[in-house]
Amino acid sequence: MRAVFALLIACALPLTACDANPSGGATTPAVAEARTVHFVVGGMTCEGCEMAITQALLQEQGVSEAGADHKAGSAWARLEPGASDPAALAAVISSLGYQASPAPTEP
């Protein structure tokens, strides 16, 4: 019986060793996260303007959510990893006839 128990333990040890991380660090890969970018937008006067900007941003590759506020003169977009850069999205807004630029980021 001891021989069977010893054989079971000997067989199980290599299996657990295969799962070990030789570097000793975490084995979880780094995952890029979505980010929200904000824009300063001039020329919006109504909710129709907000809708036009929102729809245009949502048409862009990698934009999962978007919105605009004509009273605040701003817009935002939620970008998935690898999405268009903020300057390209500001150009999309500008192509609709508004003055747009990425909002300054806070330090």
Short description:
The chain is an alpha+beta fold and 107 residues long.
Give a structural overview.
This protein has 107 residues and is α+β, with helices and mostly antiparallel strands. It is built from 3 helices and 4 strands. The chain has a 4-stranded antiparallel sheet with strand order 2-3-1-4. The longest helix is centred in the first third of the chain and has 17 residues, at 2-18. 16% of the residues are buried.
Overall pLDDT metric: 81
The total count of helices amounts to: 3
- Alpha-carbon Rg, integer: 26 Å
Sketch the major β-sheet: 4 strands, antiparallel
Measured by DSSP, the beta-strand proportion falls in 15-25%
Q: Pairing-aware structural class of the strands and helices? A: alpha+beta
**Would you state the CATH class of the domain at 35-102?**
Alpha Beta
Helix amount, in percent? 25-40%
Shape: globular
What is the CATH topology classification name of the domain at 35-102?
Alpha-Beta Plaits
Low-pLDDT residue intervals, each spanning 5 or more residues: 15-19
Which helices and strands, and how do they pair?
Blueprint: H1 2-18, E1 35-42, H2 47-58, E2 63-69, E3 74-79, H3 86-94, E4 99-102
Antiparallel strand pairs: 1-3, 1-4, 2-3
Give keywords:
single chain; 107 residues; 23% strand; 3 helices; Alpha-Beta Plaits; alpha+beta; four-stranded antiparallel β-sheet
